[in-house]
Amino acid sequence: MTPRILLIISGGIAAYKSLELVRLLRKRGMTVRAVLTESAQQFVTPLSLGVLTENPVFTDLFNLKDEQEIGHIQLSRQADLVVVAPATANILAKMANGIADDLATTLLLATDKPVLAVPAMNVRMWHHRATQRNLERLHADGVHIMTPDDGEMACGEFGTGRLPDPERIAAEVERLLALPKQDDPLAGQPDFAVGVQRFSTSLETNGVRLAGRHILITAGPTHEPIDPVRYIANRSSGKQGFAIAAAAARAGARVTLVAGPVHLPTPEGVTRVDVQTAREMLSAVESALPADAAIMVAAVADWRTADAADQKLKKDGSGQPAPLTLVENPDILATLGHHAQRPALLIGFAAETQNIAGHAQAKLARKGADWIVANDVSGDVMGGDANAVQIVTASGIEAWPALPKGQVADKLIAKVADALSPRSD
Ligand code: C5P
């Protein structure tokens, strides 16, 4: 059957890109019904959407004709997927709070179908605590959320908040439509839905077993500047570290999450410190001590430039690139391993592409850690949603099956709680 998309367009400058999105979805064989909020109509007209969707366009909750012919409840349920693109900070706030004060938000509250929100907004609005809090809540509610792109904004500022390319949105729509549909409303919704289901399980298994404990976590990459516009970094989405922070908070711990530059909302109940470079990360980690356990998940850049240029490096016409002198960054894990305030339990991660366990064993000793969580990154672990890890300790190796990152986090936190508990009894 032809996949049916209900496309809700809210009012941002990126709304004009919804026309291209409609074209791409239709090209992929989907039928599209469009709903425009009042402010979206300032950017695109119902007429142009009507022509492109070849369907009536809906704008008004109290339009009796539409109500008689279809009704808003039906409209919200006659789709296989509801897509909100662009999703402004305003509509995300309404969705997170269950506000239904126009047709678009009423449909979103009434639907029983999966929802994909594609945010687009000014960079400061994106990073605002309120928006991040709303995104976190929407994640927990099972809404799929795409991360906006970085780039120059319509307002002239630069940063995260641009609507992802319509091609990318269309691909994500296709991916979500292909997920298994089951009676369970949470089934078929990956990572965060698993997180929601896990939530109850982890509460049962972990309870508040980490209450009164301080868990320190690093996550994401570091960016080491070359000049004001270029940097050295590792590939890391931060997803695994953020999932561990969320799991630790759910288990009742006080959690400090030192995060490199990533586009992820702060998990509920977690204190987040944002840093850019390895040296900043080390200093934030040391400031957060003492901690009962430290879990160093960050993919820290091993090197930085000896001194970053104040001005953008230019090609000088000689054909010779500007020389880069690299110096080694501090090893945060090893520093903690030999620190006067060494946490009772110190856990490192090892991303390897070969001889996983062998390298992890060596790392354990070299860095003075208690456990190394080794993962094979030869596949698409970086940025992906699943992870197969081996826990390497002085007493042996425990291999876990491939699991969503949320479940790896829950299992690891349960193991941390076990390791810490004898000391508290
Ligand atoms: O040596 P390698 O980078 O593979 O070690 C990975 C582990 O060490 C991870 O836990 C990572 O967070 C930590 N690390 C660190 N500081 C560095 C490099 C790695 O804390 N400069």
Automatic annotation (TrEMBL):
Any single GO CC term annotated in Swiss-Prot or TrEMBL for this entry: phosphopantothenoylcysteine decarboxylase complex
> Which parts of the sequence belong to the DNA/pantothenate metabolism flavoprotein C-terminal domain?
210-418
| Catalysed conversion reaction | (R)-4'-phosphopantothenate + L-cysteine + CTP = N-[(R)-4-phosphopantothenoyl]-L-cysteine + CMP + diphosphate + H(+); N-[(R)-4-phosphopantothenoyl]-L-cysteine + H(+) = (R)-4'-phosphopantetheine + CO2
Q: Where is this region: Phosphopantothenate--cysteine ligase?
A: 215-425
Q: Which GO terms describe its molecular function?
A: FMN binding; metal ion binding; phosphopantothenate--cysteine ligase activity; phosphopantothenoylcysteine decarboxylase activity
Q: Which cofactor does it need?
A: Mg(2+); FMN
Q: Which domain of life is it from?
A: Bacteria
Q: Where is the signal peptide?
A: none
Instruction: Name its pathway.
Output: Cofactor biosynthesis; coenzyme A biosynthesis; CoA from (R)-pantothenate: step 3/5; Cofactor biosynthesis; coenzyme A biosynthesis; CoA from (R)-pantothenate: step 2/5
Q: What is its EC number?
A: 4.1.1.36, 6.3.2.5
Keywords noted in UniProt: Decarboxylase, Flavoprotein, FMN, Ligase, Lyase, Magnesium, Metal-binding, Multifunctional enzyme
Co-factor binding comment:
Binds 1 FMN per subunit.
Q: Name one GO biological process term.
A: pantothenate catabolic process
- Annotated region Phosphopantothenoylcysteine decarboxylase: where? 1-214
Describe the location of the Flavoprotein domain by residue ranges: 4-175
Cross-referenced Pfam families: DFP, Flavoprotein
Positions of the catalytic residues: C155
Q: Which residues bind CTP?
A: D302, K312, P330, D331, I332, L333, F349, K363, K367
Q: Please give the family membership noted in the entry.
A: In the C-terminal section; belongs to the PPC synthetase family. In the N-terminal section; belongs to the HFCD (homo-oligomeric flavin containing Cys decarboxylase) superfamily.
Q: What does this protein do?
A: Catalyzes two sequential steps in the biosynthesis of coenzyme A. In the first step cysteine is conjugated to 4'-phosphopantothenate to form 4-phosphopantothenoylcysteine. In the second step the latter compound is decarboxylated to form 4'-phosphopantotheine.
The name on file for this protein is Coenzyme A biosynthesis bifunctional protein CoaBC
